[in-house]
Design a protein that fits this description.
The chain is α+β, with helices and mostly antiparallel strands. It is built from seven helices and ten strands. The chain has two domains: 93 residues, Pseudouridine synthase I, catalytic domain, N-terminal subdomain (Alpha-Beta Plaits), CATH 3.30.70.580; 154 residues, Pseudouridine synthase I, catalytic domain, C-terminal subdomain (Alpha-Beta Plaits). Helix content is 24%, strand content 27%.
């Protein structure tokens, strides 16, 4: 058996998320079918995290094993020839048998992009949340610092996860040891501006279902003046979804990178 790690970039707009679902187009399902077409083997590539409908990835990671003796460059080239333009394989790397895209992950980085255009260009609209109201980034930056550290993020978890999510993976992309807990460690949380974009970047040990989108929705409420930056500790302490702000739309969210340099035992 050969064991593979793929690094994948995709536009999530055409898909009902990463995780395979009967009768619906998903990234995992399309990738599995491409692998079957190339190798004749029916396998289900395991992702580093479950992204929702409309969410994108610039550094999703998948792992799987094959009986077929195919070189990495050939596998990458064959997949990119078969996959739709919305999915591309950046790298195909042979890995040890004990590597698992999700269980071996140390840290994940997400990025959320907000457009401040008065009129959002159609070429950008599917990749941003277009906010036309004034936002105070200094207030948002102050509030973002309060989530750094180890906290119970129940207030920022999906209130009613869908049935498929509960059955297959209680959290959006949690590590195996964290799946039944709402406690996560956030290592970095900050905003920066790139021309007309406000970009939130967050690095953590794992993220609950809708956690990043709920954080962004709450931080935007802070930027609009609806919530004080100092309210974040109280929202965390409440451990109740109604205490936090709205859920930001999916199209602004990107899984940016998965870091395997931090072994699970070190956290």
């Amino acid at each position: 058996m050969s064991h593979w790690k793929l690094t994948i970039v995709y536009d999530g707009s055409p898909y009902h998320g990463w995780q395979i679902q009967p009768g619906l187009p998903t990234v995992q399902g399309v990738l599995a079918e491409a692998i079957r077409h190339i190798t004749g083997e029916t396998i289900l590539p395991q992702g580093s995290g479950r992204t929702d409908t409309g969410v994108h990835a610039l550094g999703q990671v998948a792992s799987f094993s094959l009986k077929s003796p195919i070189p990495g460059p050939n596998l990458q080239r064959a997949l990119n020839n078969l996959l739709p333009p919305s999915i591309r394989i950046l790298n195909a790397e042979a890995v040890p048998p004990d590597f698992h895209a999700r269980h071996s992950a140390g840290r994940k980085i997400y990025e959320y992009r907000i457009s401040t255009h008065a009129i959002c260009p159609p070429t950008l609209a599917r990749f941003v949340w277009n906010c036309t109201w004034p936002l105070d980034m200094e207030r948002m930056q102050e509030a973002a610092q309060h989530v750094i550290g180890t906290h119970d993020f129940t207030s920022f978890a999906a209130a009613t996860p869908d049935l498929a999510t509960r059955q297959a993976n209680e959290t959006e992309d949690s590590l195996e040891t964290q799946e039944k807990s709402s406690v996560r460690t956030i290592f970095a949380s900050s905003w920066h501006r790139e021309e007309s974009l406000l970009i939130y970047r967050v690095t953590g040990s794992g993220f609950l279902h809708h956690m990043v989108r709920n954080l962004v929705g709450t931080l935007v409420d802070v930027g609009r003046g609806r919530t004080s930056p100092d309210a974040l500790p109280g929202i965390l302490a409440a451990r109740a979804r109604p205490a936090a702000g709205p859920t930001a739309p999916p199209q602004g969210l990107f899984l940016l990178e998965v870091d395997y340099c931090f072994p699970r035992e070190s956290r």
